[in-house]
Specification:
This protein is an alpha+beta fold. The protein is 23% helix and 33% strand. The protein contains 5 helices and 9 strands, in the order E-E-E-E-E-E-H-H-E-E-E-H-H-H. It has helices at 110-123, 129-135, 183-192, 194-205, 214-221; strands spanning 11-12, 17-26, 52-62, 65-69, 76-81, 96-103, 143-155, 160-169, 172-181. An 8-stranded antiparallel β-barrel has the order 2-6-5-4-3-7-8-9, surrounded by 4 helices. The chain starts with 10 loop residues before the first strand and ends with a helix.
Length: 224
Amino acid sequence: MTTPAPAVPEQESKEIRAEWRVFIPMATKLSQETLGDVFDGPYDKRKGDGMEGRSDVYIAVNPAIGLKRRGAKGRVELKLLTEDRKEGEEEDIKGIEHWKKFKIGKGLAEEESLAQVHTLLEAHGLIDSHVTSLLASEDGTKSVEVAKLRVGKVYEDHGVLVEDCLVEAEGKQYRSFAVEGNKEKVKAFLSSHAVGKKMYELAMTQKEAVLHGYPNFVCKCACL
C-alpha cells in the first residue's frame, strides 16, 4: 500500500504529564449516581451536569503506545509512554506513568492520519514491523471500543485533577480512578490525601485490578 507523504501533526502536547490510573473489574454495571462518591465533596460541573460520556475506539498496539479515534467520528489521538525511571529504582507509590500526547489533524482520511502516526512513532524510535503492519491493517488489527462515563474534580491546593469513571470494554464493566498532574504532586496526593489514599488502597487490594493507563488496559482487553 502506498503511503502518502505525512503532514506535520496539528498539535503536540507541550507538557509530559504524570498519570496514575487503575481499572477495577465490577461484577455488575454501576449506576451513574455512583460517580463521584469517592470525592470529599461534589465533583466539578463546568460543562452541563459535569458528566462526560463517549465511546472511543482504540487500536491495541502495545502498552507503550496508545492509539485511538476519539468518539464516533473524532480525530485520531496518539499517546506515548516516556521512560524516565532508572532501571531498578523503587517507587513508594506504584503505577505512576508519564505520557506524551499528540492530536492528529481533524478531518483527515484514515490513511492520512495513520501516516502521521507512523511518522511520529518513527521519530520516537517506536516503529517496527509489528507496529507497521498494525497501522496498515495487514494482520487483523484488534480494535477495542471503550465506553466511558466520567466526572472529575480539581484539587487546586494539591495541583492535581482526579477522575472517577465507569468503563465498559469487551462486554465487561470497570470502575477507573485517575490522578493527573506533576509527578511529585500526584505522589503526594496518593500518599497523604484521604481521597488519594482511599483510591490507592483499592488499587492495591482489589483482585485483578489493572494499574496502568488505557494503552495497557486495552491490550489486556484484546488479550495481547
